[in-house]
Amino acid sequence: MRLEIQTKNFSYPVRIGVLEPITHASKVLVVSDSIVAPLHLDTLLSKLQASKIFTHEMPSGEEHKTWEGIESILESAFEANLSRKDLMLALGGGVVSDMVGFASAIYKRGIAFEIVPTTLLAQVDASVGGKTGINNAYGKNLIGAFHPPRAVHIDPQFLKTLPQREFKAGIAEMIKKAVCFNKDYFEWLEKHPLEKHLSEGIYKSVAIKAEVVAKDEREEGLRMGLNYGHTFAHAIEKVGRYSTHLHGEAVAIGIQMANALACYLGLLDNPTQERIKALLKTYGLNLPYKITDFEGFYKDLQMDKKNNQCICFILPKGLGAFVAREDIDKSTLKEALHAWL
Ligand SMILES: NC(=O)c1ccc[n+]([C@@H]2O[C@H](COP(=O)([O-])OP(=O)(O)OC[C@H]3O[C@@H](n4cnc5c(N)ncnc54)[C@H](O)[C@@H]3O)[C@@H](O)[C@H]2O)c1
Ligand SMILES: [Zn+2]
Question: Could you say which residues bind NAD(+) here (predicted)?
Answer without folding.
Answer: 60-65, 94-98, 118-119, 131, 140, 158-161
